[in-house]
């Protein structure tokens, strides 16, 4: 049985890295999940009662999300954050400030707000997990990656801080390695790159981590 069975999950996946077929299969496993839609995301016609459309990317909107989850779900077992944005690769000298700020806000500040507001619900669970995606695609050179690279390194620092602060709680922090996945970000940044070899899927990474955590075969 899937280690996700019977869990309550909040999913932020604006890149649609988990296909609809997986989300449909979750329902048959008794998985209650909330998929977060951002203000500019296309909203499906069949939006379920447990999908949540953020009214804005502000602290107040995330507080409303926290209250909604407390009212409708109570406890929360798993938070999965897969989203990121990438503006065109540009030298720092020519990077507009609004582009820099937008990337930092989306890739770093919004995950912070999400975790900041949902930690109380995660603490209500006997065991809970936070999954943060690592999208860094550079090899040795970081030139031109600008705010995207800064946001990804800062997100890794946030992950380390959380690991230490939550060491004596039932919450664990995990990094999902998406550096070798054929994501939309990679297609945009590296359109001429060679096809990637088969790799462990995002769901397989999550299941393996949770199986190890719960000592399941």
Can you describe what's shown?
With 217 residues, the protein is α/β, with parallel strands linked by helices. The protein has a single domain, classed as NAD(P)-binding Rossmann-like Domain (Rossmann fold), CATH 3.40.50.720. It is 41% helix and 14% strand. It has a 6-stranded parallel β-sheet with strand order 3-2-1-4-5-6, with helices on both faces. Helix 4 links the parallel strand 5 (128-134) and strand 6. The N and C termini lie close together (10 Å). The mean pLDDT is 85.
Write a concise synopsis of the structure shown:
The protein has 217 residues and is of the alpha/beta class.
Proportion of strand residues: 5-15%
State the name of the first-level CATH class.
Alpha Beta
Coarse morphology: globular
- For the biggest β-sheet, the strand order reads 3-2-1-4-5-6
Return the average pLDDT rounded to an integer.
85
- Biggest pleated sheet: 6 strands, parallel
- Relevant CATH superfamily: NAD(P)-binding Rossmann-like Domain
Q: Supply the CATH architecture.
A: 3-Layer(aba) Sandwich
Secondary structure class reads: alpha/beta
Number of DSSP E strands:
6
Span between termini? 10 Å
Order of helices and strands: EHEEHEHEHEHH
Uncertain segments of ≥5 residues (pLDDT<50)? none
Q: Tell me the number of structural domains.
A: 1
Helices, by number, come to 6
Keywords, please?
217 residues, Rossmann fold, 6-stranded parallel beta sheet, 14% strand
Please describe the topology of this protein:
Layout: E1 8-12, H1 20-28, E2 32-37, E3 52-53, H2 59-72, E4 78-81, H3 97-123, E5 128-134, H4 146-165, E6 171-177, H5 184-189, H6 202-213
Parallel strand pairs: 1-2, 1-4, 2-3, 4-5, 5-6
Helix pairs in contact: 2-3, 3-4
């Amino acid at each position: 049985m899937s280690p996700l069975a019977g869990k309550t999950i909040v999913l932020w996946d604006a890149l649609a890295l988990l296909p609809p077929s997986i989300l449909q299969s979750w329902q048959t496993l008794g998985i209650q999940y909330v998929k977060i839609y951002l203000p500019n995301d296309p909203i499906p016609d069949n939006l379920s009662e447990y999908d949540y459309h953020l009214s804005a990317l502000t602290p107040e909107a995330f507080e409303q999300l926290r209250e909604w989850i407390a009212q409708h779900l109570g406890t929360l077992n798993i938070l999965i954050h897969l989203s990121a944005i990438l503006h065109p690769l540009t030298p720092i000298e020519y990077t507009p400030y609004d582009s820099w700020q937008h990337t930092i806000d989306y890739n770093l500040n919004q995950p912070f707000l999400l975790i900041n507001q949902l930690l109380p619900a995660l603490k209500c669970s006997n065991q809970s997990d936070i999954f943060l995606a690592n999208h860094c695609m550079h090899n040795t050179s970081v030139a031109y990656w600008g705010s995207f690279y800064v946001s990804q390194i800062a997100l890794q620092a946030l992950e380390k801080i959380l690991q230490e602060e939550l060491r004596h709680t039932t919450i664990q922090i995990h990094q999902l390695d998406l550096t070798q996945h054929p994501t939309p970000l990679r297609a945009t940044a590296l359109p001429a790159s060679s096809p990637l070899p088969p790799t462990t899927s995002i769901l397989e990474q999550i299941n393996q981590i949770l199986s190890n955590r719960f000592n399941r075969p």
